[in-house]
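Today's session is about reading a structure prediction critically. Students often jump straight to the picture, but the first step is always the sequence itself: look for stretches that repeat, for charged clusters, for runs of hydrophobic residues. Only then move on to the predicted structure, which in these notes is written as discrete structure tokens rather than atom positions. Here is the chain we will use throughout the hour.
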Amino acid sequence: MPDLTSTGIAGRIEDLYGAPLADLEAHAQDQPPGMLSALLGMHDTLALAERSIDFHRDHLTRLIHPDRQIGPHEVSHLLDGTRRLAEAVAVREAQAASVAAVLQSLTRAPAPASASPTPSPPAPAAPLAAQSAMHSR
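Below is the predicted structure for this chain, in token form.
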């Protein structure tokens, strides 16, 4: 699966279930846990990891701004921010790989036929007189 972002995964879930993600989330709340709720949960975790990556990247960018001095106090913040960024990237990669593997294994079920063909009526039984004549020979 080429696009491993939460947006790409959301599009694949929508294609698979044939409905917008918001509708699918509302539908899943009224249903017992199943594949749809699992996929939505994986998507939520992936989206959260992406937001966390953005937040920690922006935080680190502010900490290392050229006009800002880095002292001993700031070093601990840099190390913590770097660790948190690495954790968020690891979560995103793991979730993206997992949900992509699950989505690749699923296919959209064909829509049920609107009009099922009516079975042909059974062949009429042979008349009793003809059957009797065959036995007497």
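Discussion point for the tutorial: The chain is about 70% helix and 0% strand.
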